[in-house]
Specification:
Elements (H helix, E strand, L loop, with lengths): L8 H15 L4 H22 L2 H9 L2 H15 L7 H10 L2 H10 L6 H25 L1 H5 L12 H17 L5 H20 L3 H18 L5 H11 L1 H15 L31 E2 L2 E2 L6 H11 L14 H11 L6 H5 L3 H8 L12 H19 L6 H18 L10 H11 L15 H27 L6 H16 L6 H16 L3 E2 L4 E2 L10 E2 L6
Antiparallel strand pairs: 1-2, 3-4, 4-5
Helix pairs in contact: 1-2, 1-7, 2-6, 4-6, 4-21, 6-23, 7-9, 7-10, 9-10, 9-11, 9-22, 11-22, 19-20, 19-21, 22-23
Length: about 550
């Protein structure tokens, strides 16, 4: 019995790419299975057409494919001067999607524009659906102001990147038929609303950068004077927004200064108060670490809750800190009198790790901005970054730069970043507690630490040169993805997780090595630029 006419190797290849795009926001196991399906079909296709060796030769004799593959090869080479082979080999494994996807996509004909479009839409709609599931299942996380809890399947950081890319895909190309276009606008609106609702500041900033790039490119049809007038004028938009945000985050605390002499000495129950007038932490307009009577709080709390005063709340935070912050947010003293003023709902919220009466009631974006302001204020006053995502990165980058300076030429090797950071923290007597002593959280700095200046420059060259050769930078959707990826690398080690490595390897290879070319013209299909006109490219696969 012959298979149906539609069941061809080319169609399975296309479907495998769409499946891979669709499963990235859901599961690392599904990502692995989708890549396995893609690889098995590619091999079977080559065996059936008797050109398997020709496909490999096509990849391994093309300098641009080899240049991209050299980034993964650099990590293999870096094992030669690595002592921690466990992490080094694990990182090489994590980065396997890069060579696999390069070979699978470079060795076969390019996709048509319509097929590329379906692959991108599969990824975009899938991430939108995943956020609907996250919101339905994780509704309590939204009420609790837990922005991480709203991402059930992958890291909230990676989910944010996928949502920004989904917005770009939805708005990049208008499909035939008004209904499809309305659906895509609705999908883009949902993705933006979810980013806003979840307080994903980093992804919102990246989205702003993408839209600014679109504006910059979108006025190319204007006369030179008008084009540059709009472009220069548009610079004031991000500049003004940046000034406003920085003014909010960096503005000094406008609370009246504390006078230790004017604070009460004892609680109503007779316990001597603990006052820390040096700590600037504020909740809902009230200083946190004044008028604290720990013995009264311990007795009263243990009588009202099954979670002990000295234990952790349900978020894993020290309950004492959550309780004191919550009492402060209500303007109460942190003693038996303040404790009596708490309702049963308040007690349950504290048990659940909510540090303020306002948490979950003023929107996650304002929660995150307020939290970042508190982090910066605390860091500026006390020099304490522990447990705070933004200010801990300052310590990570400081330690990372010290490592890089000591290993500037060839770095510490693929796997030795962990022990190198451990030594750097010890040598500098870092204020970070052991549980917070992590790696760089900056992909460019990590590459500099691992492979030195030469390795960092080669890595950037291996990314940029093939894309430049195939004129991918003239494609609006590739530029959008490149901005998303590059900016994510400033605050994350994006390539050191399977989802992050797949996000890079899949979309890079798809948009550089598999993007369609108009037959006989030597030009990328104009649809890649959103209908803005034909775009010349060099020779390429297919």
């Amino acid at each position: 019995m012959r298979p149906p006419s539609w069941l061809t190797f080319a169609n399975v290849h296309w479907a495998s790419l769409a499946i891979l795009a669709a499963v990235i926001p859901w599961s690392t196991a599904l990502i692995s299975n989708a890549q396995l399906l893609l690889a098995l079909n590619w091999i079977a296709w080559g065996i059936h057409d008797r050109d398997l060796l020709k496909r490999f030769r096509k990849v391994f004799t093309d300098r641009w494919a080899l240049l991209f593959l050299s980034f993964w090869a650099l990590h293999v080479l870096g094992l030669l001067w690595t002592k921690d082979l466990d992490w080094g080999l694990d990182l090489v494994r994590i980065l396997l999607p890069l060579p696999i996807l390069c070979i699978m996509l470079f060795g076969v004909p390019r996709l048509s524009l319509e097929r590329l479009w379906w692959v991108l839409r599969a990824g975009a709609w899938s991430v939108v659906i995943s956020t609907v599931v996250c919101l339905v299942v994780g509704w309590e996380a939204l009420r609790a102001g837990d922005h991480r809890g709203l991402s059930l399947f992958v890291s909230h950081v990676r989910l944010g990147l996928l949502l920004v890319l989904a917005i770009a895909v939805f708005l990049w190309r208008r499909p035939n038929g008004a209904r499809w276009w309305y659906a895509q606008v609705a999908g883009a609106s949902w993705a933006f609303a979810y980013l806003f609702l979840s307080g994903n500041i980093n992804s919102l900033l990246i989205l702003g950068a993408v839209l600014f790039a679109w504006l910059w490119r979108g006025v190319s049809f204007l006369p030179p004077a008008g084009r540059w007038f709009v472009r220069v004028g548009s610079l004031f938009i991000p500049a003004g927004a940046s000034v406003a945000v920085l003014n909010f985050l960096l503005a000094p605390n406008d609370m009246p200064p504390l006078d230790a002499g004017s604070l009460p000495y004892r609680s109503a129950g007779g316990e001597i108060y603990y006052h820390n007038t040096e700590d600037p932490q504020v909740e809902n307009g009230h200083y946190v670490w004044i008028q604290v009577a720990d013995d009264e709080l311990a007795r009263g709390w243990n009588a009202r809750s099954s979670i002990r005063f000295n234990a952790n709340d349900r978020k894993g935070q020290v309950l004492r800190g959550t309780l004191v912050r919550y009492l402060a947010s209500k303007g109460l003293t942190k003693d038996s009198v303040g404790l009596l003023s708490l309702t049963d709902e308040d007690v349950e919220r504290i048990e659940n790790g909510l540090p303020s009466v306002m948490t979950g009631r003023r929107g996650m974006l304002m929660e995150r901005l307020g939290q970042l302001r508190m982090e910066l204020d605390r860091y500026r006053t006390l020099g304490d970054p522990n447990g705070h995502s933004l200010t801990m990165r300052f310590a990570y980058w400081q330690a990372g730069w010290s490592i890089a300076k000591d290993n500037l030429l060839v770095g510490v090797g693929t796997g030795d970043t962990v022990p190198a950071f451990a030594r750097a923290y010890e040598a500098s007597d870092s204020v970070l507690r052991p549980e917070w002593r992590h790696r760089a959280h900056n992909q460019f700095l990590t590459l500099l630490i691992s492979f030195g200046v030469l390795g960092l420059l080669w890595s950037l060259f291996s990314w940029i040169a093939p894309a430049w050769h195939f004129k991918a930078f003239r494609s609006t959707i590739f530029v959008s993805w490149a901005i998303i990826f590059a900016l994510s690398c400033l605050t994350e080690d994006t390539l050191e997780t399977q989802v992050g490595a797949t996000f890079f390897g899949f979309y890079y290879c798809l948009l550089v090595f598999a993007a369609p070319m108009a037959a006989g013209s030597g030009r990328v299909n104009p649809g890649l630029n959103g209908g803005a006109g034909p775009l010349p490219v060099g020779s390429g696969p297919g």
